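Q:
My hope is that you can spare some time for a protein that puzzles me. I hope you can help me see how the letters and the tokens relate. Thank you; the sequence and its tokens follow:
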Amino acid sequence: MATLNPGDEVLIPDPCWPIYLPQLQIAGAIGVRYPLDPDNDWLPDLGRLEEQVTPRTRMLLINTPGNPTGAVFPRPIIAGLLDFAHRHDLYLLSDECYDQLIFEGEHLSPACLLSRQEFEDGRFIGIYTFSKTYAMTGWRIGYVVAGTQLLKTIVDVLNANLTNISTPIQRAAQAALTGPQECVATMRESYRRRRDLVLEQLKASGRYSYIPHGAFYTLINVAGRNGESSGGRQFALDLIRVSNVTVTPGQGFGMISDEYVRISLAASEHDLRLGVQAICQLADR
């Protein structure tokens, strides 16, 4: 609401966190999906982005590390996306809520490639949350990073829609940011260990397709060996009925992930081992 008018178009990844679309609808904006490539570690194709720009395009939304893919965009991709947004005079909205959950490589915010003046020009918006890094999901608190003038506009919109977050929650968030960070490293290592366990099982079952380098999710292709598939949604329903294992159908995140299901690395190693085994067994039937 601080950046878009009704009818404006926003480029969003496919697959992506499904709540992006209703959030855009509240502002009267239109989500236009750009594909992430499952054959290239779920990274975007900059050439395909160019094809989707119209006179109504106002914003590019990116998410790295990504949900549901766990993909981490490398520096050349981030630089290319930043240049793309600049050339088309777009806001760049960067969802970085998993920024501290990186297993290999680095998380690079587009803001790090901007000069102070470029940042203050107000075309970059960074979104962060305490839900992932500090496991404070139920506390419902996060923060925005943007240029001074744009931030004032965002604050005006927020003030018209909600009152303040309670003081104890704000104090807890402050303590999380300024306190010891060993707990973050411990949690990150637990996710990495679980990620590796899942990948080992997928490789042993012939269903390995990529390495999620961040966040705490992975997508698993559940198409049959002959390429036939009833889709992730039907597979998820069958999996509950046959094995009492729950996954999230890929089609909830976009069309490209229709033949996939998403699993969360927040489960225990024991549950992940049994769950992935059940997924592979059902997919191989």
User: Anything to note?
Assistant: The chain has a mean pLDDT of 96. The first strand starts at residue 9 and ends at 14.
